[in-house]
């Protein structure tokens, strides 16, 4: 399963990265919304872990843009 992790906080990103890769998931990391969008247009991800407060394009705007182009199932916490 290929996952994209969109998180700008280094500590949180490292914790999530370590946990996911320890469970043998393939993980790409984007530290801002613009890079995340570029990666999402290039690759097919099974799961997007998306922070709301990220630079260049906030998580809500990114989610809206993606949902206008793709069928998404959104779970919020």
TrEMBL record:
GO molecular function: phosphorelay response regulator activity; transcription cis-regulatory region binding
DNA-binding listed as a keyword: yes
Keyword annotations of the record: DNA-binding, Phosphoprotein
Keyword flag DNA-binding: yes
Superkingdom of the source species: Bacteria
Residue ranges annotated for the Response regulatory domain, each copy included: 2-77
Positions where 4-aspartylphosphate occurs in the chain: 51
Entry-linked Pfam families: Response_reg
Cellular component terms per the entry's GO annotation: cytosol; protein-DNA complex
InterPro entries, per the entry: CheY-like_superfamily, Sig_transdc_resp-reg_receiver, WalR-like
Signal sequence bounds: none
Biological-process GO terms, alphabetical: regulation of DNA-templated transcription
Protein name: Two-component transcriptional regulator
Species in which this protein is naturally found: Microseira wollei NIES-4236
Taxonomy of the source species: Bacteria, Bacillati, Cyanobacteriota, Cyanophyceae, Oscillatoriophycideae
